[in-house]
Amino acid sequence: MTFTLADAPTTLAELHEIGWKSKSVKQEVHDNFLAKLQAGEELYPGIIGYDSTVIPELNIALLAQHDMLFLGEKGQAKSRLMRLLVSFLDEAIPFLADPAIPLHDDPLKPITKRGRDLVANRLPEDVPIAWWPRDQRYAERLAPGTKFADIIGEIDPAKLASGVSMSAEDALHFGLIPRLHRGIFAMNELPELDELVQVGLFNILEERDVQIRGYPVKFDLDVLILFSANPATYNRSGKVIPQLKDRIGSLIHTHYPMDREQGVLILEQETGEECELRNSDCGMKEPGNPQSPQVVVPYFMKELVEEISRAARESKYIDHESGVSARLSIANYRTMVASARQRAAVLGERPAVPRISDLGHIYASSLGKLELDMMGTHQMSERQVLDAVLAEAIATVFDEYVDRHGLPEIAQIFSQGVKIEVGDMLPSSHYAKLLERVPPVWDKAFEVNASRDKAVRASCIEFVLAGLYATDRISRSQQHGRIVYEL
């Protein structure tokens, strides 16, 4: 059955004529998912690194028609996965177009008294039908501060004052879940949900009815319910009532990128890059702003930004239970590029190429995103912890390039008394002049990124110098944003 919303049925009689069949929202998701799977369509656009881990479990849960809990640390795409399930809904579904009905009642299987009366007491030609699009059939709520009335409902005092009985359906003011009848509802951070509300979810998950203030109002609610939670709080005794855990059909474990390359792919996707920059002069311009300087990001700089997050996740100074979100990499990357863009604008350089010295600005985009382990930091400040993490990330990436290019030979230059000054606002020509006074061994530094552009070469120089320092091959002094490297 195919038709456009422009010529969709507007009465119950017309709906009968086209042979419309009702199905539950879980059956609807199941059928559309299976159709996409059989057609080989992309199921979860924008999700990277979950193909052999999370996705198979999610697929099975959808086919099993389960309510689901996405369990993982912050920044693991839990909310994104939940929102993507909307794509498995029909383009639109019909509902009874009566403003007095507080939810999108199925014309063929109404669950409200008003809906049943409307269908029973009018001719099908006189029962109005409207269509509910898929993008409006999803809602989510953050658990902290959520009250029973917000997601389940409450007795409406105004209706009681008009003489309606408390035990009558008409006395209720519906919350989000009843209003999402025939849709998808997601609750983020489940362990932070008040116990009273958790209890209220028991009947909805199992019996699919509503009980408010001791008055049972039977509804055959049809809703796919999703939850998200952090393992540290979800597994803590007493945070989530066991009976509620028991009623959740499937638990989907998420995780951080398994390797750095996956993390870089996510970084590129989330920052909207137009191309991948490894060993090339390919650049990007800020979308929608043709006047913005071209930005060329050497691949090793992307690796460094991602490695900072990876090192933070392994750091003994950072709380592992809290996790380190992928948002840290994204925010740091944008800060680094912004610093390069500022230098290019002030000095009139084209293109703008990020350097190690640009990472000196990531304190602004990192502090607050790292939760310290109070037992492991030994009174270290968050800034000191970030310095340690940054040094470790530089050393890790640099060692990989050392194995590839033999860069330690450059350290011999400093035994001859050579000093090199770097800084985020020094022009690229400054670095080019320095190289005129040092041996050709520096050419090995440019194997890191094959380019003749001065700005790219300046970035390579800073990377090598920072790597030599991070691996204790040379020393440095720092003052007012300028860094001097020496033996």
Q: What does this protein structure show overall?
A:
This protein has helices at residues 12-17, 25-39, 54-63, 78-84, 113-121, 148-151, 157-161, 176-179, 195-206, 231-234, 242-247, 260-270, 299-314, 326-347, 363-366, 382-405, 428-435, 454-470; strands at residues 68-71, 92-96, 129-133, 138-142, 153-155, 172-174, 183-188, 210-212, 215-217, 223-229, 250-253, 420-423, 475-479, 482-486. The chain has 2 domains: 5-253, 3-Layer(aba) Sandwich (Rossmann fold); 260-486, no CATH class. Helix content is 38%, strand content 13%. The strands form 5 sheets. It has a 5-stranded parallel β-sheet with strand order 4-7-10-1-11. It is of the alpha/beta class. It is elongated and about 100 Å long. The model is unreliable at 274-288 (pLDDT under 50).
Keywords:
single chain, 487 residues, alpha/beta, Rossmann fold, 2 domains, five-stranded parallel β-sheet, three-stranded antiparallel β-sheet, 18 helices, 14 strands, elongated
Task: Detail the topology: elements first, then pairings.
Layout: H1 12-17, H2 25-39, H3 54-63, E1 68-71, H4 78-84, E2 92-96, H5 113-121, E3 129-133, E4 138-142, H6 148-151, E5 153-155, H7 157-161, E6 172-174, H8 176-179, E7 183-188, H9 195-206, E8 210-212, E9 215-217, E10 223-229, H10 231-234, H11 242-247, E11 250-253, H12 260-270, H13 299-314, H14 326-347, H15 363-366, H16 382-405, E12 420-423, H17 428-435, H18 454-470, E13 475-479, E14 482-486
Helix pairs in contact: 12-13, 12-14, 13-14, 13-16, 16-18, 17-18
